[in-house]
Amino acid sequence: MKTKKIDINKLKTFEELTSEWLKDPEFRKEYEALQPEYQLACQMMDARIAKKMSQKELAKRAGTGQAVISRLEGMNARPSFSLVQKIATALKTNLTFTFTAN
To answer: Of 35, 95, 31, 40, which Cα lies nearest the Cα of 73?
Structure first.
C-alpha cells in the first residue's frame, strides 16, 4: 500500500476551518446552539485549573463523581442547575447567568 504525502503548508488552521464552516447556515445554527454549553465547560475548566484542582478533587468537593466532571468538561452531559451551583461552590466562585436579546 502506497502512502500519500501531505504538504503541511497547505493545511488550514482551526480558526480558518471554523471561519469557513460558519458560512454554512446549518453549521452556524448548531455551532451557536452549543455556545452556552461550551462557555460553561470552558469556564468551569478554567476555574478548576486556576485553583490547581483535579477533576477528582472538584468532584469530591461538589459531592459527585470524577466521571461527571469529565463529562461536563467534555460537553457530554447537561448538568442540572443544582449541580452547577454545587460546582461553583466547590470552586469558591460566583455563579452568574445572563439573558440577552437575540
So the answer is: 40
pTM: 0.77
43-54 tens-digit pLDDT: 999 999 999 999
**Residue 62 located in a structural domain:** yes
- Of 43, 42, 54, 58, residue with least CA distance to 90: 58
Rounded distance, CA 50 to CA 91, Å?
10
- How many structural domains comprise the chain? 1
- CATH number of the domain that residue 42 is part of: 1.10.260.40
**Residues 63-93 pLDDT 10s:** 999 999 999 999 999 999 999 999 999 999 9
